[in-house]
Amino acid sequence: MARYTGPVCKLCRREGEKLFLKGTRCFSPKCPFERKRGYPPGEHGWVARFRRRRQSDYAHQLREKQKAKRIYGLLERQMRRFYGKAEQRSGVTGENLLALLERRLDNVVYRMGFADSRAQARQLVTHGHFSVNGRRLKSPSYLVKPGDIISVREASRKRTYFKNRAQEMDDGAVGDWLTLDPQTMSGRMLREPSREDIETVLNEQLIVEYYSR
Fold first, then answer.
1. Is the pTM of this model over 0.85?
2. Neighbouring residues of 177: CB distance < 8 A, sequence distance ≥ 6
3. What is the number of other CB atoms lying within 10 angstroms of the CB of residue 36?
4. Is the pLDDT of residue 98 over 50?
């Protein structure tokens, strides 16, 4: 299955809550989730909001897994691979999974404020605008390690986008597990993120239960 390229606001409506997939637009009155009152997409979506069906445990687990995939922009094969890595590590599997997802290069770029959304951060990474420890990387799924330095490449800093971005960035807005220097357009990962550092509203235990079936 190819990556979803349709209207991302439909994904929020399908999950029944904002996933903040379009950055600042999600906070504006133009957000389709607000204009359409959050009812599901489709021809009969407006009718479905009045129906109250009791969901099975499997349905709850599936929806939580789908929500995580959509928030981080993953395909099913990628999600299963991350779950396999989380299962092999010591500690709580659900928290390990979220920590691994947060360590993806596109997510770190987003968390540092170089982009308004993960989709935008993914595009910037694939276009080769970032380097890790001085090495240019184009893989959004690269797992950043503690001590790694993520920076905008010298040639890319001359672009209008990054010049404007440097003026808007706030080093106090990044999490405790990251540092940011807006002057040099670079940051460092200090440590792996803990569950308290991850603001994403997900019930990771339901995801574990889904893959443990």
1. no
2. 189, 190, 191, 192, 193, 194, 197
3. 17
4. yes
**Helix axes of 76-88 and 57-72: crossing angle, nearest 10 degrees:** 100
- Judged by average pLDDT, the poorest of 6-15, 61-70, 162-171 is 6-15
The answer to whether the beta carbons of residues 108 and 189 sit under 8 Å apart is: yes
Q: Which residue reads 């890319």 in tokens?
A: 156
Q: How far is CA 87 from the centre of its chain?
A: 20
The Cα–Cα gap between 135 and 113 comes to 20
Specify the DSSP class assigned to residue 179.
E
For residue 181, list its beta bridge partners. 186
Cβ(151)–Cβ(130) below 8 Å: yes
Domains and CATH numbers, the chain: 1-53 (1.10.1050.10), 104-189 (3.10.290.10)
168-191 tens-digit pLDDT: 887 667 888 999 999 999 999 999
Encoded amino acid at 46, one letter? W
19 touches 12 (CB < 8 A): yes
Model confidence pLDDT, tens digit, residues 40-59: 665 545 445 545 567 799 98
